[in-house]
Write a structure and sequence with these properties.
This protein is an alpha/beta fold and 285 residues long. It has a 7-stranded parallel sheet. A two-stranded antiparallel sheet has the order 1-2. The structure holds adenosine-2'-5'-diphosphate.
C-alpha cells in the first residue's frame, strides 16, 4: 500500500488521494472511483460545494466490495460549504454525513475562511469561523468526524484558531505547487503539529506545460504530472490530483516508485513566485 502520514489524532492519511472537484454526475464519479480504486487510491477528497458527495458515497458503497475493501480501508475527506459557515455549520456537516452515507467522515474541513454572502473584510467572519469550528469539535467528539481541519486559512486565520480551539486542526489544505511553495504556512503547520496538505498540485493542469517542469520530466523519464506530484510527496506533503480520466488517474499515481534528485527538487522549488491559480484568502477578515 502507499505511504501515509500520521495526523495529530493518530489517524493515518494516505500521501496521495483523488481530488473530485468538477467530478459530477453518478456515471462520471463511478468511473473515476473505479479507476482510482483499481490504481490503488484509498483517499478521496470531496466537498459540499462540489455537489458530488452523494454520488461519491454511492460509488464507494457499490465498488468497495469489488476490490475486497471495506469502509475502514478508505479515507474520505469532505468540506463545509461557505454558505453554512457560522450558525448553519452543524446542519451543513450533518448534511455532508447524510449525503456521503458512509457512517462517518475521516476528515472534515472548513472549506474557506469567509462566509458566503458576507463581504471578505466583514467583521463577522472570525465569529462565524469560531462557531463552525465548535460544531466540528462537537461532531468530532461524537466520532462522526474522525479528524477535523481547515482549508484556505492564512497564517493569521490559523493562529487565531490555534489560540481558541479545544481540538486543534489536524490538517490545513491549501494551494501548493512549485510556483506557490508557501514556506510561511508550512513552517507554521510544522510548529503547530498540523498536517500541511496540497491542492492544485498541477496548477489546475496549467503547470503541465511549464518549460522547467517539461525538462525535469524528460530527465526523469516521467510525465510532468508525475514530476509535480512527486515534488509534493517527496516534501512529505500529501497531494490530491484531480482527474476524471481513468488513464490519467492511473498514471498520476505512479509517484512512489522513483525519487527526484535534490537538484531537480530545487529546480522546481526555485519556480516559487507566489503565483495562485485559485482564490486568494488573504483579504478575508
Ligand atoms: P482531466 O480531469 O481531464 O484529467 P489540479 O489537480 O491541479 O486542480 O489539476 C486538475 C486538472 O488537471 C484537471 O483539469 C485534469 O483534467 C488535469 N489533469 C490531471 N491529471 C493530468 C495529467 N496527467 N495530464 C494532463 N492533465 C491532467
Amino acid at each position: 500500500s502507499w505511504p501515509s502520514v500520521a495526523l495529530n489524532t493518530g489517524l493515518q492519511m494516505p500521501l496521495l488521494g483523488l481530488g473530485t472537484y468538477k467530478l459530477c454526475g453518478p456515471e462520471d464519479v463511478r468511473r473515476a472511483v473505479d479507476a482510482a480504486l483499481a490504481a490503488g487510491y484509498r483517499a478521496f477528497d470531496s466537498a459540499a460545494v462540489y455537489r458530488n458527495e452523494a454520488d461519491l458515497g454511492k460509488a464507494l458503497r457499490e465498488l468497495l466490495p469489488k476490490y475486497g475493501l471495506t469502509r475502514e480501508d478508505v479515507f474520505i475527506t469532505s468540506k463545509l460549504g461557505p454558505k453554512d459557515q457560522g450558525e448553519k455549520a452543524m446542519e451543513g456537516a450533518l448534511h455532508s454525513l447524510a449525503q456521503l452515507d458512509l457512517g462517518y467522515i475521516d476528515l472534515y474541513l472548513i472549506h474557506w475562511p469567509g462566509t458566503q454572502g458576507l463581504p471578505v473584510a466583514d467583521e463577522r467572519n472570525p465569529g462565524n469561523r469560531a462557531q463552525s469550528w465548535a460544531s466540528l469539535e462537537e461532531l468530532h467528539g461524537q466520532g462522526k468526524l474522525k479528524a477535523i481541519g481547515v482549508s484556505n486559512y492564512t497564517a493569521a486565520h490559523m493562529t487565531a484558531l490555534m489560540q481558541s480551539c479545544k481540538v486543534p486542526p489536524a490538517v490545513l489544505q491549501v494551494e501548493f505547487h512549485p510556483r506557490l511553495c508557501q514556506p510561511e504556512l508550512r513552517s507554521l503547520c510544522a510548529e503547530y503539529g498540523v498536517c500541511f496538505q496540497a491542492y492544485s498540485s498541477l496548477g489546475k493542469g496549467e503547470l503541465l506545460a511549464d518549460p522547467v517542469i517539461l525538462e525535469v520530466a524528460k530527465n526523469c523519464e516521467r510525465t510532468p504530472a508525475q514530476v509535480l506530484l512527486r515534488w509534493a510527496v517527496q516534501h512529505g506533503v500529501p497531494a490530491l490530483p484531480k482527474s476524471s480520466n481513468p488513464e490519467r488517474i492511473l498514471r498520476n499515481a505512479e509517484v512512489f516508485d522513483f525519487t527526484m534528485s535534490d537538484a531537480d527538487m530545487d529546480r522546481l522549488s526555485a519556480l516559487d513566485c507566489g503565483h495562485r491559480f485559485c482564490w486568494d484568502p488573504s483579504e478575508v477578515a
